[in-house]
């Protein structure tokens, strides 16, 4: 794919590209108030969801076409570019007709190849930037597939948004930031402009700033941040929206690293290492849990803990697998011995 580097009028590239605005367009007043406050603080691109993909029916599902003239008014009054989410060919038709400048495709839509293909077909001939959020599940190829479908429809102005991934284990985030996935995407397609959406990753106001800083440290080129003139009363995503004032403060506090220094590459790599280590630890913890269950089974069935045949098989088989992956036999054997030793200890505890 030969993707075009995105440029936005009035945005110089020294600081990150900022897209800000409410999760949803709720009323003309809310849209215009928020937009005016953001424009006064130097924001050049305004976002607002016109159609909202909600997990359950019954919530606020977006104002729909009624909100599009408000976006036009934002453009006329503030000079900001406008952006909204499209999920169906009907949305594309209406948004283009209303003069929206940038479209984004939401995580849920990117997850569904049929919906993506329909959208791509409806975007044929459209020459504005299209931002593609990561799919809900951590599947890089699905994300790439969505970009390829758009590319196949002739779209060249493409960017991506990392908004985190759903995970069963809820930690502090609403959607886990698996940074290595967007980083790998950027490695494959260096021309792709990458944005981070700290609002949807964090799900809470207090996580917006640290996540935005992390994204900049990882060389993300833009941020899309939810901002509402009265966040507590927002009809969707109230907990993660910040006022234009707070947004301004957060943006001023962000440290933009010097892109000419190669040492910042090491920061990105170290963060990848940190994340991989977290995953290793979490896998080890899971493995020990299973060992405990095996211990309980052995106790119930009066079986010995140590079964030499099985142990030798593990060592041999893992060493071979590791070798195929470019890992030295000694290294893999040492790790497997340490893991096995701990596993035996855990089982002995159960046997007590
Ligand atoms: C949004 O940006 O408001 C949105 C619905 O995002 P996502 O697709 O990331 O959930
Ligand atoms: Mn939202």
Automatic annotation (TrEMBL):
EC number: 5.4.99.5
BP terms from Gene Ontology: chorismate metabolic process
Keywords from the named record: Transferase
SUPFAM superfamilies: Aldolase, Chorismate mutase II
Group of enzyme by EC: isomerase
Molecular function, one GO term: transferase activity
All residue ranges annotated as the Chorismate mutase domain in the record: 260-351
UniProt protein name: chorismate mutase
Organism: Candidatus Alistipes avicola
